[in-house]
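This section describes the prediction task in plain terms. A model, or a person checking by hand, is given the sequence of a single protein chain and must write out its three-dimensional structure as a string of tokens. No templates, partner chains or ligands are provided. The sample shown here is typical of the held-out split.
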Amino acid sequence: MEYKLQSAQPGMVIIGAGVAGFLTANRMAAKLMERGNFNPITLIGSEPYIPYDRTALSKDFLMGGIDAGRLNLQPPNWYVTANVILQLGEAVTAIDRNAHVLTLARGKKIEYSGLVLATGAKAKPLFPALPSPLPAKSERRRIVTLENLDDALYLREYLQVGIRLVIIGGGFIGLELASIAARMGCLVTIVEARNHALAGVIMPEITERLIEIHRLRSVEFFTQDYCISVNERPDLIEVNLARHGTLIADLVVVGIGIAPQIELAAACGLEAHPDYGIQVNEQGQTSDPRIFAVGRCSYIAAPLSAGEDGAGDTNPQPQIIARPRHVGAIQDQIDRLIAHVFQESPPPPNLPLITSEQYGIELSILGNVFANEPVLWRGHPLREPSLAFLTDQGRVIGAVGFNAGQDIQYVSSLIKSKKPIAAASLVDLRIKLSDLARKAAK
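The expected answer:
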């Protein structure tokens, strides 16, 4: 069944005012204006803030001096101009798929012609029994996560010279937070359960260079270890590890992964998996053709083949095509959704690009950064702008750049050309990447 947004219908409603929800509203509003359709878009967010850049929360914002308003993805008057109605500080409690009506926590009903779920994901707690809401301002909570603006505001009041900070989890949030905290004079330790930080994101050989930068700033790492318990005392926290004994901390930040928020979808009978998210097709449609899902709450699954109906399996595992986690992948997903709704051809997908900033070094991760062939280094990240190339049979398939933003565009051209490039040319700083890209494009 096709879904079409028509001017005589109630407007599109988006649940979730994070990056995915905002980008969907932004693209949809532009398309509606192009077509002279002035139906409003309703954007519902549980936080009281207009949509802001969450990726900035673990970066320089934590050092203070940056007003929260500077994180806004658009100023307040943009929403009026774009005909986007903001419902902030509101929680949706139920979706009536038959009546096409939402119910908010305060009892208000909102009709929809089409619905987009951009409910995102919640940080996994260290232990389920630990409280997750922020305490009253008169209290101090010392085991925290970093996933929203309130968390970041709380943290930046706490971080100061001499604070003993233990970060559990060596993902991007953990490393970016470590970078800020170390620069502020905190004593930082990272605990990672896997073999190395950013496991599953970057090859170990590249991660080692990044970790070396952290160690030069006195950040301590414990890998292949995990927290088994914590003891909160009046003046400190004891973090008990499985292998390395007890760490003493003033503050513990937990970054051990996320869990997709599927409660609304599951409650109204949409196909959803507690570990993967809300099931959608390539166009972002859920099992209800009027309802879409985008961002970290969703996953794209392959349809079951004949004889693969999961019969006899109490928990069949879906075949996952993609789980959009980063802004570029989310943008591609939204582009396909918009193209489907407005019956257009979607633009070609972008190469996967992840960016991070640590100690003033801009990290760019482009394409496929896992390969069986040796990593080819162009320069060294400790001394100069550098790139780590990943190749397959001589073809560039991905790269990781350290302060190499200007060269990333040329790397993209090399990847798209799918032509073999001599390893000696990639690593020779005397040869310009722009020249290599130009030759590969011929």
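For orientation: DSSP finds ten helices and 27 strands in the chain.
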